[in-house]
Automatic annotation (TrEMBL):
It comes from the Bacteria. Residues 3-235 form the PPM-type phosphatase domain. InterPro entries: PPM-type-like_dom_sf, PPM-type_phosphatase-like_dom. The lineage of its organism: Bacteria, Bacillati, Bacillota, Negativicutes, Veillonellales. This is Protein phosphatase. SMART domains: PP2C_SIG, PP2Cc. Pfam families: PP2C_2.
Amino acid sequence: MKAFGASQIGLVRSVNEDAYYISSKHDVMVVADGMGGYVGGEIASRTAVNAVAYYCDQMKHSDTLSLQRAMQYANACVWSKTLIDPSLKGMGTTLTMVCVQKQHVYWGHMGDSRLYYWHDGALIQITSDHTWIQCLLAKKEITIAEAKVHPRRHVLTRAIGVDEDITPDTGDILVTPGDRMLLCTDGVTAYIADEEMATLLGTPEMDEQTIVQTLLERVYAHGAEDNVTAIVLTI
């Protein structure tokens, strides 16, 4: 397996509230996008990522239950900081992670960062956004075009650290050599269409670092109003 990740502050924000992690074996990967003000979002995302990295390092094997517990541990770590320091109350973070074990990729998710899977020429969005807008789309109360410009499009319905108890989305994917995974924050998906992601991931001449750098360059070319973080993994 080969993986590469990068995170940049963007052209507008003064703080990078995103965080990411790639294990030394490239078998655990995490992206997080913090929220909660100038300091809170940065603390939340880094606390959650560090917690997941620590938990996964202790795991004997991976499955959907172990990823759920890893994310619940991260939630407890962020939640406890808001209890210790009331000024951090309301902070939280998205968190999307994968753990590779042989031919299985186990994934966990909360928030609106995303996991994409490229296989046999097709790009599949594995995760569903936990946003107010996604609820409206599911009910067909608004169109995709309306969702892209809606003033509440970034309002989350689920996140790490906001509530004491959480139940993350989890699942697993049976993968084959050559398949690729993309984990990214909404600073990427707000600017890059799925078709463009599919083209990049489906170009075998491009390695993981080149794909990530190309994604970030294109986001910057379109204004980069948010922090930008992406990880690409090739099985």
